[in-house]
Amino acid sequence: MPYAVIRVAKIKTQAHALAATGHNYRQEQHPHAIGNADRAAPHPNREYINHEQKDYWSLLEARIQEAGVKRVRHDSVRGMEVILTGSPEGFIRGQDGRAADYSKSKWAQDNLNFLKEKFGAQNVVSFTLHQDEKTPHIHAVLAPITAKNTLSADQLFNPKSLRQLQTDYAQAMAPHGFERGVEHSQAKHDPMQRLYGLEAQHAQRVAELTRPTAPAPAFQLSDPPLLGRDEWKAREEARINAELARQAEAARAQLVEVAKLAQANTAAAEQVRVLQKQLSTSEGLKQGNFTGLQEATKQVEVGDQMFDKMAVRYAQGEDLADFREFGATVREQERAELTRVVEGMLTKPVRDGDDFQAKLQAAGYQVQRDEQGKGIFIHEASGATFKTTEIQPNGKAIGPQLTATIERTTQQALTKSKGQSRGGGIGMG
């Protein structure tokens, strides 16, 4: 049975909003964003709400003002882009493999009704059906305004609410033959365009570094003089030694860069493999993604081969000191960054241990336990692992500080609750 697919992404800046507007409305000033669109598509794209195709930033700002939101920080998330679709096999297709016209379908209308009922009709500022790519899909933009007229993407779109959103959407799409995917899946949905671009850059650079180079030109000795041959010999030896030292340093620098790219590609390659499995079901939106994925995979293999070679050299007894030193440097950088992240968290409200773990996960870290049952932090991108004793926010152990932060958060919530129950008025004498 095909899967119902719903994805969300934050719109944080005006530049992001304008780029999304250009992509979704196929504006010519954004040709890079519509490379996968089929200009000869037999069925039209359709906008259901924003018929004038105003830019998303203006729409969101207008809705926030209309709702009377009193507090909008400069870094507040102004909007959420929601992609709604299903796995490709769930759509009716002709003999040529193209999907049928869904622009006036009950499926499209049910998607629109779902968002309006879930988040409020006024908060849905745009709803666009794309039919010029492999699989019909919808790009909707909504303002994350709560029932209390506050702007809070974190309240409406957190790990718990997103899991419920997946369930609710699947139920709404059940009449159309779609079902929910696996709940609590560990698969991470990274933006494919960013991932492919990163892989392509890394693989291209590795290929450049490992391409056979032309032999170094032979040393040309100057003609020896009739007199002063000892000085001539010393001068020529110094020149040759300097050139050899330069070549050796260039080779060493090349090895360090290859090691760095190989390490980066190791984590990213696994993500590409996960995307391969998901592409035909949950990420099959872009007609050109299949070709792009194959190309990205080939490029990743270059990095994999380099990493394998270095692993074999290490197994055969080579020291690879530069590689080891680089790894140690990267790990120390990640430890310092994790310490900084935790320090920032401890200055903000933390409800409990689960809330702390959720915030860490949002920052790119996992909290697990080792074989001895002790807590460890894992940096998802690099795989760097740290014992809790290695992370000393503010130069102190993390446990007591986290406990104090949770207690402070609880006390603040109680104080606020009591104040609201008393009415919170200020008497004038």
TrEMBL record:
CDD domains: MobM_relaxase. Residues 234-265 form a coiled coil. This is Plasmid recombination enzyme. The lineage of its organism: Bacteria, Pseudomonadati, Bacteroidota, Cytophagia, Cytophagales. The keyword Coiled coil applies. It comes from the Bacteria. The keyword Coiled coil applies. Pfam families: Mob_Pre. Keywords: Coiled coil. InterPro entries: Mob_Pre.
